[in-house]
């Protein structure tokens, strides 16, 4: 079995240089780095990660705890995290907290017991126990998608990365209002999540911008789940004066809303216009194609890895919250015909339909 010394001899460098290439502990000239990598390939050398971790107290692994890994949004975040981790020579351990505070703490503890160097977490709506655990054990952590505050009285700092939520949600509501809609319903996410609060705020901003009153009866919580969103949509459609347009606050709830509309024999946008927060790969395969806000999911994951590695290298950095821009993807479920473009000011140049009664 080849050793590090064998690699050094083959590449014509010192053992220390081989170590720097493997561990990325110091810059190495590109030609030298390539010589070491070529020698590793030729000799079939495999670094002893376990032995190295005993010396450095690092395992070069990252723990990722996100709920609903089957959700395309979180799947794309996972892809971004994995790509960023592999690029820097880190492995990835994954746990699903199921959006349950008790399970969340267990999942994070299991990752911690496997000696990951740091964690990337999409926290639950009630993360107090999680925050206490991370603080007690001084675990380097980056929160993704959902923002949290530090535990009361705590000096522990968390880095965070998410997309913009408020202004993009407002743009969906404004666009529907400029299409002539006056009763716009919202299927909102799980109470307690920052994304839910910010998107409700955006919904209200959009109404205000359009000169429409806020009516709490037009907001139903789908709890960020397909089944709950289906029930929430049925509640909205059962109102004495149901909405003529609907906004769903994430892709799982969009599926639930579409099921409810199908069950009632309603068409989109003929009977009800629909806009959604979150894009997904099959959103433009529907008839009509879904008008959505697209979040930079993979970029969120890659940015989380960058923030975590910077935190590992410099533990005393100031806490950072990074927000990435979302994009309005204009299709036809909002009631606009094919070929009509959205130019940034929602509804500009869009033909209107008559006001709802």
Question: Could you explain the architecture of this structure?
Answer:
There is one protein chain. With 357 residues, the chain is α/β, with parallel strands linked by helices. 42% of the residues lie in helices and 14% in strands. It has 12 helices and 12 strands. The strands form 2 sheets. It has a 6-stranded parallel sheet. It has a 6-stranded mixed sheet with strand order 7-6-8-9-10-12, with helices on both faces. β3, α7 and β4 (141-144) form a beta-alpha-beta unit. α8 packs parallel to α9 (194-209) and α10 (226-237) packs across α11. It starts with a helix and ends in a 28-residue tail after the last strand. 45% of the residues are buried. Mean pLDDT is 87; it is low at 150-155 and 343-357.
The mean pLDDT is 87
Q: How much β-strand is present in the residues? A: 5-15%
As a percent range, the share of helical residues equals 40-55%
What is the CA–CA distance across the termini? 80 Å
Q: What low-confidence regions span 5 or more consecutive residues with pLDDT below 50?
A: 150-155, 343-357
Strand order of the largest sheet: 2-1-3-4-5-11
Structural class: alpha/beta
């Amino acid at each position: 079995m080849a050793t590090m010394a064998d690699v050094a001899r083959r590449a014509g460098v010192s053992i220390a240089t081989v170590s720097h290439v493997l561990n990325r502990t110091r810059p190495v000239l590109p030609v030298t780095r390539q010589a070491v990598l070529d020698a590793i390939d030729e000799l079939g050398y495999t670094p002893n990660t376990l032995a190295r971790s005993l010396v450095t107290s690092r395992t070069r692994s990252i723990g990722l705890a996100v709920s609903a890994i089957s959700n395309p949004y979180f799947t794309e975040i996972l892809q971004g995290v994995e790509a960023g981790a592999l690029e820097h020579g880190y492995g990835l351990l994954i746990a699903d907290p199921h959006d349950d505070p008790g399970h969340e703490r267990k999942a994070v503890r299991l990752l911690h017991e496997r000696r990951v160097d740091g964690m990337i977490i999409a926290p639950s709506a009630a993360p107090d126990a999680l925050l206490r655990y991370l603080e007690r054990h001084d675990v380097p952590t980056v929160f993704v998608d959902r923002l949290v505050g530090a535990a009361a009285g705590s000096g522990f700092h968390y880095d965070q990365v998410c997309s913009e939520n408020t202004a993009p949600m407002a743009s969906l509501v404004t666009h529907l209002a400029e299409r002539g809609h006056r009763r716009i319903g919202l299927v909102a996410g799980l109470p307690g999540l920052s994304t839910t609060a910010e998107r409700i705020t955006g919904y209200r901003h959009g109404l205000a911008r359009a000169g429409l009153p806020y009516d709490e009866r037009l907001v139903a919580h789908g709890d960020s789940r397909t089944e709950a969103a289906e029930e929430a949509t049925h509640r909205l459609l059962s109102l004495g004066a149901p909405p003529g347009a609907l906004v769903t606050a994430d892709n799982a709830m969009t599926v639930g809303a579409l099921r409810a509309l199908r069950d009632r024999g309603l068409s989109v946008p003929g009977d009800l216009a629909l806009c959604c927060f979150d894009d997904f790969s099959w959103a433009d395969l529907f008839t009509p194609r879904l008008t959505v806000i697209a979040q930079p999911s993979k970029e969120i994951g890659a940015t989380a890895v960058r923030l975590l590695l910077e935190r590992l290298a410099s533990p005393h950095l100031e806490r950072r919250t990074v927000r990435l821009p979302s994009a309005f993807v204009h299709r036809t479920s909002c009631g606009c015909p094919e070929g009509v473009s959205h130019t940034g000011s929602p509804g500009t140049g869009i033909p209107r339909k008559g006001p709802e009664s």
